[in-house]
Write a structure and sequence with these properties.
The complex is a heterodimer of chains A (about 150) and B (about 425). By secondary structure, chain A is an alpha+beta fold. Chain A has a single domain, classed as Sufe protein. Chain: A (Alpha-Beta Complex), CATH 3.90.1010.10. Chain A has 5 helices and 3 strands. Chain A starts with a helix and ends with a helix. The longest helix of chain B is centred in the N-terminal third of the chain and has 20 residues. Chain B is built from 14 helices and 17 strands. The termini of chain B are far apart. In chain B, the strands form 5 sheets. Chain B has a 7-stranded mixed beta sheet, sandwiched between helices. A 4-stranded antiparallel beta sheet of chain B has the order 13-14-17-16, with helices on one face. In chain B, strands 1-2 form a two-stranded antiparallel ribbon. In chain B, a hairpin with a 2-residue loop joins strand 1 and strand 2. The chains are: A alpha+beta (about 150), B alpha/beta (about 425). The interface between A and B is medium-sized, with 26 and 24 residues.
């Protein structure tokens, strides 16, 4: 029973992203950069996004330190952001916030590997570990838009 | 030797299960569990003599007042304080320290005065002094730590100057377990003319503390870390200091007379207890003190030392475990902080919780110390009188489970 519960929190996909994170490293010439941390546990994460001429995210990278959930989420989020417009990125983030409250994402939102975070909901103290990444990206997108008067 | 089996029978919570496994409670530095004597005292107070104290003329008020003040006497005796007049009840140790920072510090310190602290302080013995320094222009300085987790005594001698008005330091680190040589440090401070506040939140519950022998000017501790209820802290202060200090909070109970424009103050210690105090929890705290006296602090300290020696030995068997704190177990209490290489302590703590083992994982309200150790967090097991060698075995087994879990092969369809 115990192992089953742990498996639900730390799905294989999550452990895999934790051990071999994708898209790690600073991105020079990024259009969006934001950072954040969870003061309680010391998790920290930096995100960089680079947009193409059509306003789509061409590259997403992150650098972070912290627990398996926070770091795997960072990695999975970079993969899922690629190719999205800012609006779509924010819709994805809303879907993740909904997932943490047990809501199914809208049919046209593809969560990709991020779907594996559904089990985190059952561990309330760990939700903030997952939420760190999308909160940072949301903040970065918000600042980018504010600077451009959106 | 403690009769741990009969001690455990006094703690109802120790017979519950967590995630289907018998609870192993190793988070005693955060808060301890309560024996039925303490729980019964709460029920008894509310069932039989609940009343406001110091003001009623009826029987219930007299009984409640007598019970409340008897705990003040008992607390004074427990700390070997010369009289109950030197014991002030607060909400917690944090409030006791803030009381000193406000009532003594703001009236006493001037720009350029020094407050000497250490790098191993809990936030509660750090932030109040930051606020005080900001308000008065006093400056803070810090005794550094050796890599083994001891205070750098040469720092202490160098930083203790004629400008130092107060030294505030912990008796025992809540992260490293280091027991500081406070008696010597207090003597040195007094020779320089500085007063000393001891944060004894981690020491008073676990080893004999005699404020007379230590010679400290102020000492703060917390009931809930020593079998008592939450919501009660203790400030010991030398009577002359309490007499000289203005009140901390104003309101009922702390006054002698009140006119529209001004008031005069009640005698110590009541001058520092504004408003209706936490009557029920103070009374139940008296049962906690009685319990600890019956078992004996020397025996508790020896028991914890044995447990932590065993925990350190078992955890050291693994190469990927980093242990923090003094290697010499004579110099530490029952606190064992560690990290499992490559894993965040919250991940380790989650697996341990699933195994029924409760530990603390995080920065332990000591962020400057975490920076000094070069980590963001640690896992921490902390012992008390009801813990056993089997508890330590369950801890070590659960750490092994955590390691195996995070290193297991994964099946990922990429």
């Amino acid at each position: 029973m115990v192992v089953e519960q742990l498996d639900e929190l730390y799905r294989d996909v999550i452990l895999d992203h934790f051990r071999s994170p994708r898209n790690v490293g600073e991105l020079s010439g990024a259009d969006v950069h934001a950072e954040g941390n969870n003061p309680l546990c010391g998790d920290q994460i930096d995100f960089w996004l680079k947009l193409n001429g059509q306003g789509r995210i061409e590259q997403a990278r992150f650098v972070g330190k912290g627990c398996a959930i926070s770091q795997a989420t960072g990695s999975m989020l970079t993969e899922q952001l690629k190719g999205k417009t800012m609006d779509d990125a924010l819709r994805l983030i809303d879907a993740m916030k909904g997932l943490m409250q047990g809501q199914e994402p809208a049919a046209d939102v593809d969560l990709g590997d991020l779907e594996s975070l559904a089990g985190v909901r059952k561990f309330p103290v760990r939700v903030k570990c997952a939420a760190l990444s999308w909160n940072v990206v949301e903040q970065g997108v918000g600042e980018y838009r504010k600077q451009r008067g959106w | 030797m403690l009769d741990v089996k009969s001690i455990r029978a006094d703690f109802p919570i120790l017979s519950r299960t967590v995630h289907g496994k018998p609870l192993v409670y190793l988070d005693n530095a955060a808060t301890t569990q309560k024996p039925r004597q303490v729980i019964d005292a709460l029920v008894n107070y509310y069932s039989r003599y609940n009343a406001n104290i110091h003001r009623g003329i009826h029987a219930l008020a007299e009984e409640a007042t007598a019970a409340y003040e008897a705990v003040r006497e008992r607390t004074a005796a427990f700390l070997h304080a010369p009289s109950a007049r030197s014991i002030v009840f607060t909400r917690n140790a944090t409030e006791a320290i803030n009381l000193v920072a406000h009532a003594w510090g703001r009236a006493t310190l001037k720009a350029g005065d020094g407050i000497l602290l250490t790098e191993m302080e809990h936030h509660s013995n750090l932030v109040p002094w930051q606020l005080l320094a900001h308000a008065t222009g006093a400056t803070l300085s810090f005794v550094g730590l050796t890599d083994e987790g001891y205070l750098k005594l040469e720092d202490y001698e160098r930083l203790l100057t004629a400008k130092t008005k107060l030294v505030a330091l912990t008796h025992m680190s809540n992260v490293l377990g280091t027991i500081n040589p406070v008696e010597r440090l207090i003597e040195q401070a007094h020779r320089r003319g500085a007063l000393v506040l001891i944060d004894a939140a981690q020491s008073v519950p676990h080893l004999p503390v005699d404020v007379g022998r230590l010679g400290c000017d102020f000492l703060a501790c917390s009931a809930h870390k020593m079998l008592g209820p939450t919501g009660v802290g203790v400030l010991y202060a030398r009577e002359a200091l309490l007499e000289s200090m203005d009140p901390f909070l104003g309101g009922g109970e702390m006054i002698a007379d009140v006119m529209l424009e001004r008031s005069t103050w009640n005698e110590i210690p009541w001058k520092f207890e504004a408003g209706t105090p936490n009557i029920a929890d103070v009374i139940a705290f008296g049962e906690a003190l009685a319990y600890l006296e019956r078992v004996g602090l020397d025996a508790i300290h020896a028991h914890e030392r044995e447990l932590s020696a065993y925990a350190v030995k078992r955890l050291r068997e693994a190469e990927d475990i980093v242990l923090y704190g003094p290697p010499n177990l004579e110099d530490r209490g029952g606190v064992v902080s560690f990290n499992l290489n490559g894993l965040h302590p919250h991940d380790v703590g989650t697996v341990l919780d699933q195994e029924g083992v409760a530990i603390r994982a995080g920065h332990h309200c000591a962020k400057p110390l975490m920076r000094r150790l070069g980590v963001t967090a640690t896992a921490r097991a902390s012992m008390y009188l009801y813990n056993t060698m089997e508890d330590v075995d369950r801890l070590v087994d659960a750490v092994q489970t955590a390691r195996a879990f995070f290193h297991k092969p994964t099946r990922v369809s990429a």
